[in-house]
Amino acid sequence: MKKPPTQDKTDIMSRRTKQTYDYGQKNLCVLLDLDQVLADFEGHFITKFREKFPDDRFVQLDERKGFYIKDQYEKLDRNLGDKVRAVYIEKGFFLDLPEIKGAIPAAREMAAMDGVDVFICSSPLTEYQNCLSEKFEWVEKHLGPEWLDRIIIAKDKTVINGHILIDDRPYINGSCKSPAWKHIVFTAHHNRHVEGRQRLDNWTDGTWRDIIEDFKKRI
Ligand SMILES: Nc1ncnc2c1ncn2[C@H]1C[C@H](O)[C@@H](COP(=O)(O)O)O1
Ligand SMILES: [Mg+2]
Q: For the whole model, what pTM was predicted?
């Protein structure tokens, strides 16, 4: 393994690809989900749904329950499922997602922390045509081009290696029954009812730093 050069972490981070050197210690690998952790999928969905279908019933954010928006809308009216889908497969939907408050400065600060590597781990829709390229565009626009090398696209997040996965989806299943990561549930309206899980409620009160420091001690 190469010896580390005599430069500080800021210099290394400014490169497009962060290199791995033998510092005699392991870095904490943090996987950050994109939708509803960095980008506000649910809030933007309601705005667009109401613009497109102003005469239809919709679910207020504080009434959201269960991961899939489509499932809850279909319970209101079974014809709404196709309308829900039409909103998020439309060109520009993923690119225009607003930032979750405080997420971008927190992600940048986390990535600059000593002993921490940060990746963005996101699942594409099966209707990938707009969603996939727009996820990359969103990251480039909000975090910068140097983050493009840190995007992991995976339908099955259980096979991805990392120490922590911060993700709003409360149950993450896949072909690996014992994923390497510990799941920290990022609180969203749809998952508030899920109990007994380690959570991160927001990016603004600084508690994310405590979680990262705690896990750094454990690896
Ligand atoms: N709450 C959601 N309802 C429907 N679809 C959703 C929701 N959150 C995310 N999605 C979509 C958008 C993403 O492309 C995939 C997976 O998202 P991920 O945040 O990586 O679990 O599903
Ligand atoms: Mg998500």
A: 0.90
Write the pLDDT tens digit of every residue in 98-126: 999 999 999 999 999 999 999 999 999 99
Quick one: tokens of 3? 């010896």
| Phi and psi at residue 78, to the nearest 5° | -70, -15
Query: Best of 123, 156, 186 to mutate for ligand 1, by most ligand atoms within 8 A of CB?
Result: 123
Q: Residue 193 gets which letter from DSSP?
A: T
- Per-residue model confidence (pLDDT) at position 15: 45
**149/145 Cα distance (integer angstroms):** 8
Classify 56 as helix, strand or coil. coil
Determine whether 33 is an active site residue.
yes
Residues with CB under 6 A from ligand 1: 33-36, 41-42, 67-69, 122-125, 131, 169, 190
